[in-house]
Design goal:
Keywords: Membrane, Transmembrane, Transmembrane helix. This is EscD/YscD/HrpQ family type III secretion system inner membrane ring protein. InterPro entries: SMAD_FHA_dom_sf, YscD, YscD/Y4YQ_C, YscD_cytoplasmic_dom, YscD_ppl_1st, YscD_ppl_3rd, YscD_ppl__2nd. The protein is of the alpha+beta class and about 425 residues long. It folds into five domains: about 100 residues, Tumour Suppressor Smad4 (Sandwich); about 50 residues, Histidine-containing Protein, Chain: A (2-Layer Sandwich), CATH 3.30.1340; about 60 residues, 2-Layer Sandwich (Histidine-containing Protein, Chain: A); about 60 residues, Alpha-Beta Plaits (2-Layer Sandwich); about 70 residues, no CATH class. About 30% of the residues lie in helices and about 30% in strands. The chain is built from seven helices and 27 strands. It has a six-stranded antiparallel sheet with strand order 2-1-11-10-7-8, with no helix packed on it. A five-stranded mixed sheet has the order 4-3-5-6-9. Strands 24-25-26-27 form a four-stranded antiparallel sheet, with no helix packed on it. The protein is elongated.
């Protein structure tokens, strides 16, 4: 059942208005009241009613007034009776359901019958018509003003509500939520959030504010669970499922033993069976495929015997000595491998760079003498004291019991000595370290 009311006093006298279900405020403040009346003595929130299909309940009223029903004081929570005389300060009103009509007047005026002459009756009739005309003009003006205030209040309230909702959606959890407020009567929210709890929190917020909305929101949690269920049924439970780079996308990673007909159609199957899934980033590898392909690429570039390959977590370490030409060949291998396998796994070169020939040190020590004039004997059986230089440009700078310091060009080298000291000054082999 729906209701309507009629005002019998003040600027809005004779005006009828519908009473929508829910909490309804009658008062003078357009920002707070649902039914705005601007008569003198009217409080911003004059009366607070709860309207339902079964009836209307008085919930609260402004200070300094006593609401009455047919002259009897009312209490909070009391149900009002339709068609009765309701009064609260300057407000005099009544209500009934929409299928009925309300009387023109509530006051029961005593009829006074007195003899009068015809001219007097004509004058009284003219006064009545003039009063009706004035009342109609007043009602029209009040309706125009009231409608403007009412719409203004609605627009201001809608703008404030939209700003409050946008502040709520500014949280990191709702960065992918899209608000469509083109229809002020029904807000549409679409997009994606990560967890189901975030979607529930948004729904509870909208309900608590009394917003009219349509929630077309997906959660990445639902997408991950849906994709995981399908992969498990197909025997791919070992794969990892994570959010993709874009909202609505999932990333698959891991390794499978072989590629069959089921796997070749996995992306289209997931998009078809998982509601809201927009795409799949497939980074799944076939077991051993990347090692076989890497070996083939190294073989093509002539690096198969030069580099050693070792798996370390999510990368492949390749170690060895490469010159400039071989480094260029390795870069070609790396680029082709990345095009085929992405960054899972990555190639990492641990290059013990081969020193160019002109920088290599030719200083093969055979023996060292620590006599009055220390010297070293090299592979050519020549003696080289401190200050001596070989034909290749290596100069002896110092001779110590544990090492020989030499230089070539601007670079110094330390030649470590190994072996036991002997009286014949013979030492074992030496190692070279720059």
């Amino acid at each position: 059942m729906s209701w309507k009311c009629r005002v019998y006093r003040g600027f809005n006298r004779g005006v009828e208005a519908p009473l929508p279900e829910g909490r309804l405020v009658i008062g003078s403040d357009p920002l707070k009241a649902d039914l705005v009346l601007v008569d003198e003595g009217m409080a911003p929130e004059h009366l607070v009613l709860l309207v339902t299909g079964e009836g209307i309940t008085l919930q609260a009223w402004a200070d300094g007034i006593t609401p009455t029903q047919d002259g009897v004081a009312l209490t909070a929570g009391e149900t009002l009776r339709a068609g009765t005389r309701l009064e609260a300060g300057p407000l005099l009103w009544s209500f009934c359901d929409n299928s009925r009509s309300l009387p023109e007047q509530l006051e029961a005026l005593a009829a006074v019958v007195a003899p009068s002459r015809a001219p007097r009756r004509r004058a009284a009739g003219a006064d009545v018509w003039m009063g009706v005309l004035c009342l109609s003009l007043v009602v029209a003006v009040v309706l125009l003003l009231g409608t403007g205030w009412w719409h203004g209040a609605d627009e201001n309230e809608s703008a404030r509500s939209e700003q409050a909702l946008k502040r709520f959606l500014a949280a990191p959890n709702y960065r992918q939520v899209v608000l469509n407020s083109s229809d002020p009567e029904l807000w549409q929210l679409s997009g994606y959030v990560d967890e189901n709890s975030a979607r529930l929190a948004l729904q509870q917020y909208l309900d608590s504010k009394g917003f009219s909305y349509r929630l077309e929101l997906r959660t990445m949690e639902d997408l991950r669970q849906g994709a995981g269920f399908i992969l498990q049924k197909l025997g791919y439970e070992q794969l990892q499922i994570r959010n993709g780079k874009e909202p609505g996308w999932l990333k698959l990673s891991g390794e499978i033993q072989g590629q069959d007909g089921k796997w070749s159609t996995i992306e289209s199957l997931l998009k078809q069976e998982v509601p809201g899934l927009l795409g799949v980033e497939n980074q799944v590898q076939i077991a051993g495929a990347y090692r076989k392909r890497l070996d083939a690429l190294l073989q093509e570039q002539g690096l198969a015997g030069t580099l050693r390959v070792r798996e370390a977590g999510g990368r492949l370490e390749l170690s060895g000595q490469l010159d400039e030409r071989q480094l260029s060949q390795f870069q070609q291998v790396n680029q082709q491998f990345r095009r085929e396998f992405g960054t899972h796994p990555t190639l990492e070169l641990i290059n013990q760079t081969r020193t160019p020939r002109q920088d290599e040190l030719e200083f093969d020590v055979r023996s060292v003498s620590f006599g009055r004039v220390p010297y070293v004997v090299l592979a050519d059986n020549q003696r080289y004291p401190v200050g001596g230089a070989t034909s290749s440009g290596v100069r002896v700078l110092a001779i110590r019991p544990d090492a020989v310091v030499v230089s070539k060009g601007k670079q110094q080298y330390i030649v470590k000595l190994k072996g036991a000291e002997r009286h014949d000054d013979q030492f074992g082999s030496a190692t070279v370290r720059r």
